[in-house]
Structure to design on (617 residues):
C-alpha cells in the first residue's frame, strides 16, 4: 500500500514538474493589461505631483529652451531653436497627436488602458492595444511575430510596434514613426529612429523604460522611464476630434512661423539660475558626472559677476 | 552553347535582381504603389482596367510591369506623367506598348496605351527643351493640355490632373483620385531629398511651395492629422497630410532664410556658407544626385532671377 501511495506521489510530482516546465513561458510573463494612471494622477495634481520628472511634460509643457539631459546633437539643437509655439496655430497642426517617441511621456493625460487583443477565431493572443494616448495616436503592439513594414510604407504617429517577452518583461521595438518631437518644446525626433521599450510590471505598478536611438538627431540613445499605477476604477475616454479653428487672422495660406538662425532661448536658464550652456543638452548632460562640470560652470559665472 | 547558356543566366539574374528591388504596397481604395523602378509608380486598378501614374526608369520596365502584375492582371489603359524627368518617363515606351487604349475611348485607334501629360512635358521631350536630348516619338505624351486642370473618369473614380505651373519643373501634375482619396504628387514631394527645383526646366521655389500648399489644400485627415488622404511622393514613403506639412514647413523656412540673406545683398557663396538648411541636412541632404548645396543654390537663383540669368 505504501509503495502504491509512494508511486502516486512520485507520479504526481512528475506531472506537477511537467506542468511547471510546460507552463514556464506563461508564468514568466506578467500580463500588463489594465487601466493605468500616471504619478501625476495618483499623487494629485499639485505641487507634489510637479516634483516628478515628467511633471513639466504632463501639464503646461516644458519651457522653451529646456534641453537639459537630452543627448541631442547640434542639428537637433538648431531645429529646436528655430521652433516657435506659434506654429501650432497652423490649422493643419492644431490636431497633431504626440508621436510614439513622446506619447507615453507627453501631456494630455495620459492615463492609459492596455488591453489584450485576441484573434476572434483562434483565440490566440496577437497583440496589446494602448489607448488614451494624446489626440488618439493609440498604439498596437503586435505579439504574433510579424515583420516590420517596408521602408516605403507610411510612417504613423503611433509607429509600428512588435513585442516579445524577455522573462516577465515585455520588450517592444517601434519603427515607422513620424518626424516628431522627444520633448514638446521643439526638440525633434526623426522618422528614422528606432524605439525600444521595456514594460516591467511590479504588482500594481508598471514601469515603461524607453530607449530612443535616432541616427539623425541624437548623439547617443536617449533613455527615460515613467511609472504608472493600476486603477481599476478608471476608464479612459474616447479621443476628442480637434476641429481646427482660424487662429491666423490675416496670415496667408502657408504661413510658417519660425525663429531666425542664431536665436537662443535663455529664459529657462535664467528662471532656474542655471548656466545657459547646461540647458543645451548633449550626451554628457545625461550622466551624473556632469554635476561636477555644472558646479564648475556655476562657479565661473559667479566669478564673472 | 555554354556561353549562350551563361549569358542567358546572367540576363535572368539581372532581371531577377531588378524584380527583387521592386516593392508593391497597397495605398488606399483602388490605389497601390510600385517602388524601386525609378520614381514611385501609382497604380489605379478597377473593373475597367489599370491606370498608371509614371513609368519608372528606362531599363526597369520589365521589373515594373512584373510589379504591376503582382497587383492586377487587368489591361493597362492609361499612363499619366507627373513630370518629364527620365526616372518617371524612361519607361513610357515599354509600358505604353504593354497596354492598349480603353475600349470606346477616343484613343482607340492607337495600338498602345495613351500617355497623358502637360504640354510642357511634350515640348521637353520632342524639342529637347532645357538641354535634354530629344526622345524618340514612342516616349512622347499622346494627350496633352495647357490649362490648369484636366479630368478623367475611370473605374468609377473621378481623377483630376492638376497642373503646377512652375514647381519642380514647368510641367508638373498632381494626380488626385477623388474616390480613393489619394494624391500622386510626383517630384513636388520627395521624402528622401530636398525638392529638386529644376530651374533649367522652369521650376521655381515659389511654385514648389505653392504646389505643396495645393496638396495640403486637397488633403483631409480622418482624425487629428491621422490617416485621411494619402499622398504618394515621387520618391520615398507613402505620406498623409501631416508629412506634407512638415515638408512644406521645411521648404518655406529655408526659402525665408535664403531670401533674408539675399535681400541683405549676400552673394550665393555667402548664402551657401551660412548653411540655411543646416538642421535639415541629415534628413534630406544625403542624396548625392541632389545635394544641399544644389538645393540652396536653386532657391537663391530662383529668388534672384538677375543672378540666375547672368550665370547661366
Amino acid at each position: 500500500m505504501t509503495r502504491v501511495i509512494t508511486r502516486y506521489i512520485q507520479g504526481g510530482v512528475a506531472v506537477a514538474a511537467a506542468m511547471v516546465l510546460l507552463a514556464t513561458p506563461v508564468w514568466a510573463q506578467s500580463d500588463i493589461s489594465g487601466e493605468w494612471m500616471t504619478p501625476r494622477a495618483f499623487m494629485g495634481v499639485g505641487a507634489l505631483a510637479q516634483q516628478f520628472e515628467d511633471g513639466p511634460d504632463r501639464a503646461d509643457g516644458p519651457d522653451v529652451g529646456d534641453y537639459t539631459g537630452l543627448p541631442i546633437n547640434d542639428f537637433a539643437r538648431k531645429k529646436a531653436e528655430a521652433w516657435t509655439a506659434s506654429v501650432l496655430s497652423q490649422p493643419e497642426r492644431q490636431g497633431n497627436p504626440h508621436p510614439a517617441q513622446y506619447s507615453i511621456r507627453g501631456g494630455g493625460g495620459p492615463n492609459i488602458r492596455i488591453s489584450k487583443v485576441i484573434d476572434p477565431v483562434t483565440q490566440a493572443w496577437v497583440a496589446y492595444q494602448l489607448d488614451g494616448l494624446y489626440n488618439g495616436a493609440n498604439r498596437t503592439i503586435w505579439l504574433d511575430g510579424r515583420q516590420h513594414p517596408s521602408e516605403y510604407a507610411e510612417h504613423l504617429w503611433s509607429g509600428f510596434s512588435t513585442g516579445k517577452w524577455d522573462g516577465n518583461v515585455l520588450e517592444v521595438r517601434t519603427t515607422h514613426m513620424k518626424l516628431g518631437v522627444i520633448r514638446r518644446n521643439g526638440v525633434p525626433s526623426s522618422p528614422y529612429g528606432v524605439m525600444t521599450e521595456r514594460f516591467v510590471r511590479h504588482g500594481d505598478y508598471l514601469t515603461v523604460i524607453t530607449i530612443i536611438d535616432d541616427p539623425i538627431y541624437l548623439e547617443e540613445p536617449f533613455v527615460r522611464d515613467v511609472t504608472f499605477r493600476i486603477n481599476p476604477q478608471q476608464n479612459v475616454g474616447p479621443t476628442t476630434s480637434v476641429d481646427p479653428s482660424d487662429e491666423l487672422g490675416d496670415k496667408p495660406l502657408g504661413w510658417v512661423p519660425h525663429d531666425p538662425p542664431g536665436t537662443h532661448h535663455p529664459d529657462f536658464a535664467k528662471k532656474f539660475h542655471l548656466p545657459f550652456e547646461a540647458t543645451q543638452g548633449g550626451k554628457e548632460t545625461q550622466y551624473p558626472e556632469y554635476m561636477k562640470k555644472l558646479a564648475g560652470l556655476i562657479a565661473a559665472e559667479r566669478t564673472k559677476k | 552553347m555554354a556561353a549562350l547558356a551563361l549569358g542567358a543566366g546572367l540576363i535572368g539574374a539581372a532581371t531577377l535582381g531588378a524584380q527583387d528591388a521592386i516593392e508593391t504596397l497597397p495605398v488606399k481604395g483602388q490605389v497601390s504603389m510600385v517602388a524601386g523602378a525609378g520614381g514611385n509608380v501609382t497604380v489605379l486598378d478597377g473593373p475597367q482596367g489599370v491606370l498608371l501614374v509614371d513609368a519608372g526608369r528606362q531599363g526597369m520596365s520589365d521589373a515594373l510591369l512584373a510589379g504591376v502584375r503582382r497587383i492586377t492582371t487587368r489591361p493597362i489603359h492609361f499612363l499619366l506623367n507627373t513630370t518629364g524627368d527620365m526616372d518617371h518617363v524612361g519607361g513610357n515606351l515599354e509600358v505604353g506598348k504593354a497596354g492598349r487604349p480603353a475600349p470606346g475611348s477616343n484613343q482607340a485607334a492607337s495600338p498602345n496605351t495613351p500617355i497623358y501629360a502637360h504640354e510642357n512635358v511634350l515640348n521637353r521631350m520632342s524639342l529637347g527643351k532645357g538641354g535634354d536630348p530629344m526622345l524618340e516619338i514612342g516616349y512622347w505624351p499622346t494627350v496633352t493640355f495647357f490649362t490648369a486642370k484636366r479630368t478623367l473618369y475611370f473605374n468609377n473614380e473621378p481623377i483630376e490632373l492638376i497642373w503646377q505651373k512652375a514647381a519642380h519643373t514647368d510641367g508638373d501634375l498632381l494626380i488626385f483620385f477623388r474616390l480613393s482619396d489619394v494624391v500622386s504628387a510626383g517630384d513636388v514631394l520627395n521624402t528622401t531629398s530636398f525638392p529638386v527645383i529644376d530651374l533649367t526646366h522652369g521650376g521655381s521655389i515659389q511654385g514648389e511651395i505653392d504646389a505643396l500648399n495645393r496638396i495640403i489644400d486637397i488633403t483631409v485627415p480622418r482624425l487629428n492629422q491621422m490617416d485621411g488622404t494619402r499622398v504618394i511622393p515621387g520618391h520615398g514613403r507613402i505620406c498623409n497630410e501631416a508629412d506634407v506639412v512638415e515638408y512644406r514647413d521645411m521648404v518655406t523656412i529655408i526659402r525665408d532664410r535664403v531670401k533674408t540673406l539675399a535681400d541683405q545683398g549676400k552673394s550665393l557663396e555667402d548664402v551657401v556658407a551660412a548653411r540655411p538648411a543646416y538642421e535639415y541636412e541629415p534628413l534630406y541632404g544625403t542624396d548625392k544626385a541632389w545635394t544641399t548645396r544644389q538645393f540652396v543654390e536653386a532657391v537663391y537663383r530662383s529668388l534672384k532671377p538677375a543672378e540666375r540669368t547672368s550665370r547661366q
In short: Confidence is low (pLDDT under 50) at residues 1-9, 15-27 of chain A. The CA atoms of residues 49 and 102 of chain A lie 19 Å apart. The two ends of chain A are 94 Å apart (CA to CA). The interface with chain B takes residues 75-76, 78-79, 82, 87, 90, 92-93, 95-97, 135-137, 150-157, 178-179, 188, 190, 216-217, 239, 241-242, 253-254, 256, 258, 260-261 of chain A (CB under 8 Å).
